[in-house]
Specification:
This protein is α/β, with parallel strands linked by helices and about 170 residues long. The protein has a single domain, classed as Rossmann fold, CATH 3.40.50. Helix 2 links the parallel strand 2 and strand 3. The chain is built from six helices and seven strands; from the N terminus they run βαβαβαβαβββαα. The chain is about 40% helix and about 20% strand. Helix 1 crosses helix 2. The relative contact order is 0.18. Strands 3-2-4-5-6 form a five-stranded parallel β-sheet, with helices on both faces.
């Protein structure tokens, strides 16, 4: 059974402030935030409010990813028109979601350097790197299954099913 570690709301808000500060201090400025559904939507909304940046949502990582490829094609076109996009997710664990999005954007002709990623938690052992992280972990040491504030209302069985789907991360 995994160790479920709740992320308190104040820690979540603190991570958002850390991300907003890092983005504000960087010379690279995004035009739009893109929340990656489902886990990145709440962080993207908060980061949108903290930064004043507009936000779009991309239902890519969820069970229903219909239309994601069309949206990624339109987002790639926006980068070719000069816009910079910051994709936001809750955790960069394996890097699978970020890798798929990067590959899809590249295949759609996204402008080099126009896309970045931000996560609340970044695993240093991930196959993908992010540009901004609220917190960094090492999955070789930290096996906890993080429960973000928006997941706190989920039934325990649902959380256990989610964790069981990726046993390599928590074993």
């Amino acid at each position: 059974m995994p160790v479920f570690t709740p992320i308190p709301h104040d820690a979540f808000v603190g991570a958002i402030r850390t991300l907003a500060g890092a983005i504000a201090a960087d010379a690279w400025k995004p035009a739009v935030l893109v929340g990656i559904g489902r886990g990145g939507l709440a962080p993207a909304v908060y980061l949108s409010h903290a930064s004043g940046l507009p936000m779009l949502s991309l239902d890519y990582a969820g069970a229903v990813a219909e239309g994601a490829d069309d949206l990624l094609g339109r987002l790639a076109a926006r980068t070719r028109a000069g816009e910079r996009l910051l994709f936001v997710d809750d955790i960069n664990d394996s890097g699978r979601t970020i890798g798929r999005i990067r590959a899809a954007l590249s295949a759609a002709g996204a402008a080099p350097g126009a896309v970045r990623f931000a996560t609340l938690i970044d695993n240093v052992r991930s196959a993908e790197r992010v540009d901004y992280a609220g917190r960094t972990i090492d999955r070789a040491e930290t096996k906890d299954w993080f429960v973000f504030p928006w997941e706190a209302v989920a039934p325990q069985a649902s959380l256990a099913d989610d964790a069981a789907a990726v046993p390599d991360r928590i074993a």
